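Dear support,

I submitted the protein below through the web form. The confirmation email said the job was done, but the results page showed an empty box. After a refresh the structure appeared. I'm attaching both so you can tell me whether what I see now is the final result or a partial one.
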Amino acid sequence: MRVALIADTHLPSLIRELDELGSGPRELLATADLILHGGDVTAPSVLDWCDAFAPVLVARGNNDIFEHPSLAERHLLDLEGWRLGMTHELRPESRPISVLLQDGLGGERVDVLIAGDTHVERLEFREDVLFVNPGSPTLPHHKEYRLGTAAVLDIEHDRIRAEVIVLGQTEGRPNPGSGSTLELVRENGRVRRLP
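What the results page shows now:
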């Protein structure tokens, strides 16, 4: 199963749709079986655009003052035997995972923790949890509108491959994001990172 992760789209604003920045977001979402949006959508039209590619779930961001069936404060999902949890804000993200789980998911235990809010991509495995912040596809590192980052999870029963993807370049506005990849396997009930 392929899960696309985006967050902090903040549309509409100076641009109205993700397509205005280029084809990178569309190409990524077209490969997804499910889209998880880490919040700060700001308008339901973004979710309608995403829903044309795959079902979408959203963690309510501090700028999401609208109602939508896919919107919740947090989401907990079981996919291919892995438990995923998503919320919007977990600042500072450098705190212990146990604290992030308590603050963001009410202490629920997950294999994969997804958040947004910072606009800065993060992909790491610590305290036996894969932590992913896809950054922002539109306002990376809080720069002005330009292509940024997203992420993808390729999930199998005994393996997860996670990747932060740089969505391209906007002319005259370099993308400050950086890509990274991390792969986990589950063996005999234990999860470990592949070298």
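Response: this is the final, complete result; the empty box was a page-load delay. Residues 97-105 form the longest helix (9 residues).
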